[in-house]
Design brief:
The strands form 4 sheets. Strands 2-1-3-4-5 form a 5-stranded mixed beta sheet, with helices on both faces. A two-stranded antiparallel sheet has the order 6-7. A hairpin with a 5-residue loop joins strand 6 and strand 7. It is built from 12 helices and 11 strands. Helix content is about 45%, strand content about 15%. It is of the alpha/beta class.
Amino acid sequence: MSVKITRDHLDRAAVVYVRQSTMSQVMGNLESQRRQYDLAQAAETAGFKSVAVIDDDLGRSGSGSTQRPGFERLVAMVCSGNVGAVYCIEASRLARNGRDWHHLIDLCALAGALVIDPDGAYDPRLVNDRLLLGLKGTMSEYELSLLRQRGIAARDSKAKRGEYRFMLPPGFCWSELGKIEMDPDEHVAGLVRLVFTKFRELGSARQVFLWLRAADIKMPVVRGGDQGETPATIKVRLRRWGRTEGRAQPDRRTVPIGVARFWTRLAAGCGWCKLLVRLDKRESMPCLASTSPTTR
Protein backbone atom coordinates (compact mmCIF):
# COMPACT_ATOMS: atom_id res chain seq x y z
CA MET A 1 0.00 0.00 0.00
CA SER A 2 1.26 3.48 -0.87
CA VAL A 3 2.43 5.70 1.98
CA LYS A 4 0.24 8.45 0.53
CA ILE A 5 -2.89 6.52 1.58
CA THR A 6 -3.44 7.70 5.14
CA ARG A 7 -5.98 6.78 7.79
CA ASP A 8 -8.00 9.85 6.82
CA HIS A 9 -8.35 8.49 3.29
CA LEU A 10 -9.22 4.98 4.48
CA ASP A 11 -11.98 6.28 6.73
CA ARG A 12 -13.74 7.62 3.67
CA ALA A 13 -15.06 5.80 0.61
CA ALA A 14 -13.16 4.74 -2.49
CA VAL A 15 -14.85 5.19 -5.85
CA VAL A 16 -14.02 2.99 -8.83
CA TYR A 17 -14.87 4.66 -12.15
CA VAL A 18 -15.54 2.25 -15.02
CA ARG A 19 -15.98 3.45 -18.60
CA GLN A 20 -15.69 2.17 -22.16
CA SER A 21 -16.21 4.45 -25.13
CA THR A 22 -18.57 2.46 -27.35
CA MET A 23 -21.12 -0.31 -27.01
CA SER A 24 -19.01 -2.51 -29.28
CA GLN A 25 -16.21 -2.22 -26.72
CA VAL A 26 -18.64 -3.04 -23.93
CA MET A 27 -19.73 -6.19 -25.76
CA GLY A 28 -16.33 -7.22 -27.14
CA ASN A 29 -13.53 -5.88 -24.92
CA LEU A 30 -14.47 -7.86 -21.85
CA GLU A 31 -10.93 -8.13 -20.50
CA SER A 32 -10.57 -4.35 -20.22
CA GLN A 33 -13.94 -4.24 -18.49
CA ARG A 34 -12.88 -6.98 -16.08
CA ARG A 35 -9.66 -5.16 -15.21
CA GLN A 36 -11.59 -2.03 -14.33
CA TYR A 37 -14.02 -3.88 -12.09
CA ASP A 38 -11.09 -5.64 -10.37
CA LEU A 39 -10.03 -2.25 -9.01
CA ALA A 40 -12.82 -2.60 -6.46
CA GLN A 41 -11.02 -5.60 -4.98
CA ALA A 42 -7.78 -3.60 -4.92
CA ALA A 43 -9.53 -0.81 -3.00
CA GLU A 44 -10.89 -3.29 -0.45
CA THR A 45 -7.43 -4.81 -0.04
CA ALA A 46 -6.02 -1.33 0.61
CA GLY A 47 -8.39 -1.03 3.57
CA PHE A 48 -10.94 1.58 2.50
CA LYS A 49 -14.05 1.78 4.64
CA SER A 50 -16.40 1.33 1.68
CA VAL A 51 -16.06 0.93 -2.07
CA ALA A 52 -18.48 2.23 -4.69
CA VAL A 53 -18.38 1.33 -8.37
CA ILE A 54 -19.67 3.83 -10.94
CA ASP A 55 -20.29 2.20 -14.31
CA ASP A 56 -23.06 4.43 -15.64
CA ASP A 57 -20.84 5.59 -18.52
CA LEU A 58 -20.27 2.25 -20.20
CA GLY A 59 -20.64 2.91 -23.92
CA ARG A 60 -20.14 6.68 -23.58
CA SER A 61 -17.26 8.69 -25.00
CA GLY A 62 -15.03 10.70 -22.68
CA SER A 63 -14.22 13.34 -25.31
CA GLY A 64 -16.69 15.79 -23.79
CA SER A 65 -19.11 15.65 -26.74
CA THR A 66 -21.66 13.51 -24.87
CA GLN A 67 -23.23 13.77 -21.45
CA ARG A 68 -21.80 11.40 -18.83
CA PRO A 69 -24.11 10.89 -15.86
CA GLY A 70 -21.55 8.61 -14.20
CA PHE A 71 -18.86 11.27 -14.30
CA GLU A 72 -21.30 13.85 -12.95
CA ARG A 73 -22.12 11.49 -10.11
CA LEU A 74 -18.40 11.02 -9.42
CA VAL A 75 -17.86 14.80 -9.27
CA ALA A 76 -20.78 15.18 -6.87
CA MET A 77 -19.41 12.47 -4.57
CA VAL A 78 -15.95 14.07 -4.53
CA CYS A 79 -17.49 17.47 -3.72
CA SER A 80 -19.33 15.97 -0.76
CA GLY A 81 -15.99 15.24 0.92
CA ASN A 82 -16.88 11.60 1.55
CA VAL A 83 -14.47 10.21 -1.06
CA GLY A 84 -10.93 9.36 -0.05
CA ALA A 85 -9.71 8.02 -3.39
CA VAL A 86 -10.77 7.76 -7.02
CA TYR A 87 -9.67 4.54 -8.72
CA CYS A 88 -9.27 4.30 -12.51
CA ILE A 89 -7.45 1.92 -14.82
CA GLU A 90 -5.84 4.90 -16.58
CA ALA A 91 -6.36 8.63 -17.07
CA SER A 92 -8.24 8.20 -20.35
CA ARG A 93 -11.05 6.35 -18.53
CA LEU A 94 -11.80 9.40 -16.40
CA ALA A 95 -11.69 11.92 -19.24
CA ARG A 96 -10.46 12.44 -22.77
CA ASN A 97 -10.65 16.22 -22.58
CA GLY A 98 -8.69 18.69 -20.47
CA ARG A 99 -11.77 20.48 -19.13
CA ASP A 100 -13.25 17.47 -17.34
CA TRP A 101 -9.86 16.11 -16.29
CA HIS A 102 -8.53 19.28 -14.65
CA HIS A 103 -11.92 20.04 -13.11
CA LEU A 104 -11.88 16.66 -11.36
CA ILE A 105 -8.25 17.05 -10.26
CA ASP A 106 -9.01 20.50 -8.79
CA LEU A 107 -11.94 19.08 -6.83
CA CYS A 108 -9.85 16.15 -5.56
CA ALA A 109 -7.24 18.64 -4.35
CA LEU A 110 -9.87 20.68 -2.50
CA ALA A 111 -11.48 17.59 -0.93
CA GLY A 112 -8.17 15.87 -0.12
CA ALA A 113 -8.94 12.84 -2.30
CA LEU A 114 -6.32 10.73 -4.05
CA VAL A 115 -6.28 9.56 -7.65
CA ILE A 116 -5.10 5.95 -7.87
CA ASP A 117 -4.27 3.85 -10.91
CA PRO A 118 -2.19 0.66 -11.35
CA ASP A 119 0.98 2.78 -11.54
CA GLY A 120 0.54 4.37 -8.12
CA ALA A 121 -1.32 6.86 -5.93
CA TYR A 122 -1.29 10.58 -6.64
CA ASP A 123 -2.14 13.43 -4.29
CA PRO A 124 -3.27 16.48 -6.33
CA ARG A 125 -2.20 18.72 -3.43
CA LEU A 126 1.46 17.82 -4.01
CA VAL A 127 3.24 19.76 -6.75
CA ASN A 128 5.03 16.79 -8.31
CA ASP A 129 1.91 14.64 -8.30
CA ARG A 130 -0.14 17.48 -9.73
CA LEU A 131 2.40 17.86 -12.55
CA LEU A 132 2.31 14.14 -13.32
CA LEU A 133 -1.49 14.08 -13.31
CA GLY A 134 -1.50 17.05 -15.69
CA LEU A 135 0.80 15.20 -18.08
CA LYS A 136 -1.40 12.09 -17.94
CA GLY A 137 -4.48 14.15 -18.78
CA THR A 138 -2.71 15.95 -21.62
CA MET A 139 -1.45 12.68 -23.12
CA SER A 140 -4.94 11.18 -22.85
CA GLU A 141 -6.44 14.08 -24.76
CA TYR A 142 -3.66 14.03 -27.35
CA GLU A 143 -4.06 10.29 -27.85
CA LEU A 144 -7.71 10.76 -28.83
CA SER A 145 -6.78 13.41 -31.40
CA LEU A 146 -4.02 11.18 -32.74
CA LEU A 147 -6.36 8.20 -33.11
CA ARG A 148 -8.91 10.36 -34.90
CA GLN A 149 -6.25 11.78 -37.21
CA ARG A 150 -5.00 8.30 -38.10
CA GLY A 151 -8.52 7.11 -38.83
CA ILE A 152 -9.27 10.05 -41.13
CA ALA A 153 -5.95 9.62 -42.96
CA ALA A 154 -6.63 5.91 -43.47
CA ARG A 155 -10.14 6.64 -44.76
CA ASP A 156 -8.90 9.30 -47.21
CA SER A 157 -6.15 7.02 -48.46
CA LYS A 158 -8.65 4.24 -49.08
CA ALA A 159 -10.97 6.66 -50.85
CA LYS A 160 -8.18 7.82 -53.19
CA ARG A 161 -7.68 4.23 -54.29
CA GLY A 162 -11.42 3.88 -54.90
CA GLU A 163 -11.77 1.17 -52.25
CA TYR A 164 -13.64 3.06 -49.55
CA ARG A 165 -17.11 1.68 -48.92
CA PHE A 166 -19.83 3.10 -46.72
CA MET A 167 -23.35 2.21 -45.70
CA LEU A 168 -25.70 2.82 -48.61
CA PRO A 169 -29.36 3.85 -48.31
CA PRO A 170 -32.00 1.16 -48.76
CA GLY A 171 -32.45 0.21 -52.40
CA PHE A 172 -28.74 0.24 -53.23
CA CYS A 173 -25.86 -2.13 -52.53
CA TRP A 174 -22.21 -2.69 -53.38
CA SER A 175 -21.42 -5.15 -56.14
CA GLU A 176 -18.51 -7.56 -56.09
CA LEU A 177 -16.62 -5.12 -58.34
CA GLY A 178 -17.07 -2.29 -55.87
CA LYS A 179 -19.79 -0.51 -57.86
CA ILE A 180 -23.04 0.91 -56.50
CA GLU A 181 -26.02 -0.96 -57.91
CA MET A 182 -29.74 -1.25 -57.29
CA ASP A 183 -30.65 -3.82 -54.68
CA PRO A 184 -31.31 -7.20 -56.32
CA ASP A 185 -34.32 -7.63 -54.03
CA GLU A 186 -37.19 -6.64 -56.32
CA HIS A 187 -39.47 -5.87 -53.38
CA VAL A 188 -37.01 -3.34 -51.93
CA ALA A 189 -36.16 -1.81 -55.32
CA GLY A 190 -39.85 -1.55 -56.23
CA LEU A 191 -40.67 0.33 -53.03
CA VAL A 192 -37.89 2.85 -53.65
CA ARG A 193 -39.10 3.43 -57.24
CA LEU A 194 -42.60 3.92 -55.86
CA VAL A 195 -41.38 6.72 -53.60
CA PHE A 196 -39.92 8.67 -56.53
CA THR A 197 -43.00 8.05 -58.65
CA LYS A 198 -45.31 9.41 -55.94
CA PHE A 199 -42.99 12.36 -55.35
CA ARG A 200 -43.27 13.39 -59.00
CA GLU A 201 -47.03 12.98 -58.76
CA LEU A 202 -47.60 14.78 -55.43
CA GLY A 203 -44.65 17.21 -55.53
CA SER A 204 -44.01 17.11 -51.77
CA ALA A 205 -41.92 14.81 -49.60
CA ARG A 206 -44.38 15.28 -46.72
CA GLN A 207 -47.33 14.32 -48.93
CA VAL A 208 -45.45 11.21 -50.02
CA PHE A 209 -44.96 10.28 -46.39
CA LEU A 210 -48.64 10.81 -45.58
CA TRP A 211 -49.71 8.83 -48.66
CA LEU A 212 -47.44 5.92 -47.73
CA ARG A 213 -48.86 5.90 -44.24
CA ALA A 214 -52.45 6.08 -45.41
CA ALA A 215 -51.79 3.20 -47.79
CA ASP A 216 -50.00 1.31 -45.00
CA ILE A 217 -46.95 0.82 -47.21
CA LYS A 218 -43.80 0.16 -45.23
CA MET A 219 -40.47 1.38 -46.55
CA PRO A 220 -37.14 -0.50 -46.32
CA VAL A 221 -34.74 0.59 -43.58
CA VAL A 222 -31.21 -0.78 -43.25
CA ARG A 223 -30.48 -2.39 -39.89
CA GLY A 224 -27.35 -4.32 -38.93
CA GLY A 225 -24.36 -5.38 -41.01
CA ASP A 226 -20.91 -3.80 -41.34
CA GLN A 227 -20.13 -0.67 -43.31
CA GLY A 228 -19.18 -1.33 -46.89
CA GLU A 229 -20.77 -4.77 -46.91
CA THR A 230 -24.23 -6.09 -47.67
CA PRO A 231 -26.45 -5.32 -44.65
CA ALA A 232 -27.30 -8.31 -42.52
CA THR A 233 -30.99 -7.44 -42.64
CA ILE A 234 -33.23 -4.95 -44.39
CA LYS A 235 -36.38 -4.36 -42.39
CA VAL A 236 -39.44 -2.81 -43.95
CA ARG A 237 -41.38 -0.32 -41.86
CA LEU A 238 -42.86 3.17 -41.82
CA ARG A 239 -42.18 5.69 -39.08
CA ARG A 240 -45.17 6.93 -37.10
CA TRP A 241 -45.93 10.41 -35.85
CA GLY A 242 -45.81 11.32 -32.19
CA ARG A 243 -48.47 13.02 -30.10
CA THR A 244 -48.78 15.86 -32.62
CA GLU A 245 -49.92 13.30 -35.20
CA GLY A 246 -51.95 14.94 -37.94
CA ARG A 247 -51.83 18.32 -36.18
CA ALA A 248 -48.38 19.64 -37.10
CA GLN A 249 -48.37 23.42 -37.23
CA PRO A 250 -45.67 24.95 -39.47
CA ASP A 251 -43.93 28.06 -38.16
CA ARG A 252 -43.12 31.17 -40.15
CA ARG A 253 -39.69 30.02 -41.25
CA THR A 254 -39.02 28.24 -44.52
CA VAL A 255 -36.06 26.03 -45.26
CA PRO A 256 -34.81 24.96 -48.72
CA ILE A 257 -35.65 21.33 -49.42
CA GLY A 258 -31.98 20.58 -50.10
CA VAL A 259 -31.07 21.28 -46.48
CA ALA A 260 -34.42 20.75 -44.74
CA ARG A 261 -33.61 19.02 -41.49
CA PHE A 262 -37.26 18.64 -40.57
CA TRP A 263 -37.67 15.82 -43.08
CA THR A 264 -34.82 13.92 -41.47
CA ARG A 265 -36.64 14.28 -38.14
CA LEU A 266 -39.96 13.42 -39.76
CA ALA A 267 -38.72 10.08 -41.06
CA ALA A 268 -35.57 9.64 -38.97
CA GLY A 269 -33.72 6.48 -39.82
CA CYS A 270 -35.13 6.14 -43.35
CA GLY A 271 -32.13 6.57 -45.63
CA TRP A 272 -34.28 6.82 -48.76
CA CYS A 273 -35.89 10.09 -47.64
CA LYS A 274 -32.57 11.90 -48.04
CA LEU A 275 -32.76 11.21 -51.77
CA LEU A 276 -36.05 13.07 -52.05
CA VAL A 277 -34.86 16.33 -50.54
CA ARG A 278 -32.16 16.63 -53.20
CA LEU A 279 -34.54 16.44 -56.15
CA ASP A 280 -35.26 20.15 -56.28
CA LYS A 281 -33.08 22.46 -54.17
CA ARG A 282 -34.92 25.52 -55.39
CA GLU A 283 -38.22 24.69 -53.69
CA SER A 284 -39.09 25.52 -50.09
CA MET A 285 -41.25 23.83 -47.51
CA PRO A 286 -42.37 24.83 -43.99
CA CYS A 287 -40.00 23.86 -41.21
CA LEU A 288 -41.74 21.52 -38.75
CA ALA A 289 -39.24 22.16 -35.96
CA SER A 290 -41.90 21.54 -33.30
CA THR A 291 -42.73 18.07 -34.59
CA SER A 292 -40.69 14.96 -33.87
CA PRO A 293 -41.52 11.27 -34.39
CA THR A 294 -41.59 8.79 -31.61
CA THR A 295 -38.92 6.14 -31.45
CA ARG A 296 -40.06 2.57 -31.27
